[in-house]
Structure formats: C-alpha cells, structure tokens
Amino acid sequence: MDTKEYYLDDFVDYLNKNDKSSGTISTYTTNINDFIKYYTESYGEKFIPGNVIMMDLQDYRNYLLNIKRQKASTINNKIAALKEYFYFLQSNGIIKNNPAENLKKIRTNKPTAPKGFSDSDFRKIKRYVYRSQKNLWIVVFELLSKTGVRVSELINIRLADITINERSGNLRVIGKNQKERNIPLHLDVRKAITAYMEVRDKMSISSDYLFISERKRPFTRSGIFKILKRWENDTNIKIHPHMFRHHFAIQILNTPKSDINTVQYLLGHESIESSAIYLKVRQEDLEKSINALTDY
C-alpha cells in the first residue's frame, strides 16, 4: 500500500499540528487503512479518495455492525477517524465533496457504567502489588487507582508537578488539550511516592520525569502496559489502565459531598456528559439486585 497515494503522511502531519496524541494518531491511521482495505476488496477497484461516496461509508458501517459484529463504541471510533480524514482531504482541496460529513454514528443506550474492577478483584490486585514489595509497582498502582490519571498523563508526571507536605499533597496534571488540573494526593499515594523517591534518588538520575526505567530513561506507554500485563497474567484478572480510572470515579461518587462535577474535574473531562456515565449503575450491581430478590 502506497501511503503517499492516500495522503496519509500529510494526514498524520495534520493530526500532529492539531495536537493529537500519539495514541490517537496511531488509531486513526489504522482505522483509515482498514477502510481502504475493505474498499479495495469489496469493490475490486483502486482506492481513490475522491471516488468515495456516502453510500460506501454507510455500507462499511453496516459491515462492521452486522458482519464483523463489532461493538458500537468501536465502530463509532472508526467513523470518527473517517470523518477527520475526509474533512482533512476536503479542507486541503484534495477532494471536492466530503462523503463523511453527514455520516451518523451508531446510537447507543447502555444502561451500565464503564467496566471497572469488582471490589474483590481490586483487593486481590492491590495485595499482589504490595506483596511484590516493588516500589515502582506500588506507586504506579496507587497513582492509577487514587488519582484517575490516564497512562499518557502518568508517564509525563514531572518531579515539579508533585507537592507533598506532612498532612497533604498535590499532583499537577497536564491532560488532553493541555488542560491543567490539580489532584489532592491520598495518604497512600504520598507514602508510595516517598518510598519510590528514596529508591529513585539512589539511581543518580538527572531526568525530571518521575518514572524512570532501568535504562534511566523516561517510561513509555508500552513500559506501563508491560507492567499491567504482568499483573494481569499473575492474578488472572483482566486489567486495563482505564479500569483503574473507572474504579476511581465510582469510589469518588460513593463518598459524601462528591458529585458529578467533582468527577469531571478530577478526571479532566471536557464535558459533563463524559462524566455522567458514572451515574449509571454497574452491571454487577444490577445482577446483585436481581439475585437479592425473594419470592413475591
């Protein structure tokens, strides 16, 4: 596949200039390539962006939904990538009409909050991490579970972003779209950071990043994912970094005097709608309610 032909290199430059994260750029390019592959195999012709019509995109959406049986959220992510791609092509005069302009996403009506950890699974993971006695693991666990930071935010924490006093602490986070938020640090987080710093200081590190690998380089996303994969394999519990984020949000909502605005701020959500999903009940809570029914 000649990416120059499809302006993918220029598209990546456009995404970079619009401050998209490396993860978003990678996902978008993968989704565009998936559509190009579908187009050439389905229609038996060379992919030319200007030849694509809305019907092609609608057929692709139906193919993903009815043949591939993909989740609505997955399909909507692919649609978002296609919308961005064809908008880029039109705005740069590469195509005259944008076939994705009025393409609708799949409507979802989920009754449940995002998948998080059950209380027992969370305790099992925590016990496993603490039993390892690895300061790095413990501080990663505590920051993910008690600040709700994203992995991209976690690996970009600088020493100057952390303030720890005798009875309080604060973490300055630069999130999506360079939006800043300040998260109070729980006692467990403060203890974990302090213990980790004692080990880190002995490594003679000049970098101002909090997380440094054994090679004395800043941690990458893949480095954090490798740690989480190890936890997953050893505990036999499905672990994804966003599950810690969901667990954190639910715990915050379960505390007195906390509301959806608190969750929005702490998670760094742009809109209140993104946070509102945590007001919905979890699937396991629905099951508990049903199972608790007596004969009536």
What this model shows, in words?
It is a single chain. By secondary structure, this protein is mainly alpha-helical. The chain has two domains: 3-91, Tyrosine recombinase, N-terminal domain (DNA polymerase, domain 1, Orthogonal Bundle); 119-288, Intergrase catalytic core (hpI Integrase, Chain A). 55% of the residues lie in helices and 5% in strands. The chain has helices at residues 8-17, 22-43, 54-67, 72-91, 119-132, 135-147, 151-154, 187-201, 221-235, 241-253, 260-267, 272-276, 283-291; strands at 162-164, 169-174, 180-184. It has a three-stranded antiparallel beta sheet, with no helix packed on it. Strand 2 and strand 3 form a beta hairpin. Helix 6 packs antiparallel against helix 8 (187-201). The longest helix is centred in the first third of the chain and has 22 residues, at 22-43.
Order of helices and strands: HHHHHHHEEEHHHHHH
**What does the overall shape look like?**
globular
The CATH H-level homologous superfamily of the largest domain = Intergrase catalytic core
How many domains in all?
A: 2
Notable features of this structure?
single chain, 296 residues, mainly alpha, DNA polymerase, domain 1, hpI Integrase, Chain A, 2 domains, three-stranded antiparallel β-sheet, 3 strands, 55% helix, globular, Integrase_recombinase_N, Integrase/recombinase XerC, Tyrosine_recombinase_XerCD, DNA_brk_join_enz
SSE blueprint and pairings:
Elements: H1 8-17, H2 22-43, H3 54-67, H4 72-91, H5 119-132, H6 135-147, H7 151-154, E1 162-164, E2 169-174, E3 180-184, H8 187-201, H9 221-235, H10 241-253, H11 260-267, H12 272-276, H13 283-291
Antiparallel strand pairs: 1-2, 2-3
Helix pairs in contact: 2-4, 6-8, 6-10, 10-11
